[in-house]
Amino acid sequence: MIKGICETRQVYIGSDELLPDKSQKVWNHSPDGFMWGYGGSGPAQLALAILLEFTDEENAVRLHQGFKWKFIASKYIGSDFELDENEVIEWVTNQQVVTID
Asked: What is the domain range of residue 24?
């Protein structure tokens, strides 16, 4: 389960805290870290950070704005959130581009 705690703006994947540092090295949307509930820089940073845990860097960068709008911006600002890891994996899998030779 992915959980966000509004009061502290901390995000956990299971029992491990997700920190913005890794995702900020890839694309620094938000020096202030994570947020959710709207379409800005904090939600973009969170979307990228989550996707970096479930796919490679190229796909995380390519997909994070769409992921932000589907899963992060839609959460209620000012409240905690939960997101099922399996839903993330399924969404990422469905976004893969299939090419026919």
From this structure: 2-95
Domain assignment present for 100: no
Domain total in the chain: 1
pLDDT in tens, 6-17: 999 999 999 999
User: Is the sign of the CA dihedral 46, 48, 50, 53 positive or negative?
Assistant: negative
Backbone angles phi, psi at 16, to 5 degrees: -95, 130
- The reply to whether 74 falls in a domain is yes
**Torsion of the alpha carbons at 38, 42, 46 and 47, rounded to the nearest 10:** 50
**Token pair of 37, please?**
């509930």
**pTM of the shown model:** 0.92
CA distance 59 to 8: 29
